[in-house]
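ok, trying the design again with the full structure, not the truncated one.
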């Protein structure tokens, strides 16, 4: 696909640009509706990011790239602001406790979850600001 610009300083992928042979557009050109009614470009996030921010976001996205972690995270997120005991995660996901601990550590290290020790068991809850940050970066509007 050919990059096209939808907003000043932002590169995006333009599906119809490739089909029409069009290359990069001037930064002040707005997206025009394609024949299908969809926009012919999609701008990702608020603009270019620096190397430090890219490293930070990549760490969070890497933690989310594992299917088991996504399932565990979805289970914790389903509780909203409440916490979830690690003992409940192993039983509900059908995986061993050491596997749960391994994957939950990756999610905590990425800053997506917090961990609090309550007696023998760890309890996990989501970090809303981490998801707001990912949501803002992945926003295509």
């Amino acid at each position: 696909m050919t990059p096209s610009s939808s907003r000043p300083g932002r590169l995006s992928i333009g599906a119809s640009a490739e089909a029409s042979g069009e290359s990069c557009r001037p930064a002040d050109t707005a997206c025009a509706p394609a024949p299908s009614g969809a926009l012919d470009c999609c701008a990702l996030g608020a603009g270019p990011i620096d190397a430090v921010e890219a490293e930070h976001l990549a760490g969070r996205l890497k933690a989310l790239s594992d299917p088991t972690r996504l399932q565990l995270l979805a289970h914790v997120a389903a509780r909203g602001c409440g916490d979830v005991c690690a003992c409940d995660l192993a039983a509900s996901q059908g995986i061993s406790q050491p596997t749960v601990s391994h994957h939950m550590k990756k999610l905590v290290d990425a800053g997506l979850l917090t961990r609090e020790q309550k007696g023998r068991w760890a309890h996990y809850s989501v970090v809303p600001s981490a998801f707001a940050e990912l949501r803002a970066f992945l926003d295509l509007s």
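Keeping the full-length input from now on. The helical segments are 15-20, 51-63, 67-77, 86-93, 97-109, 128-138.
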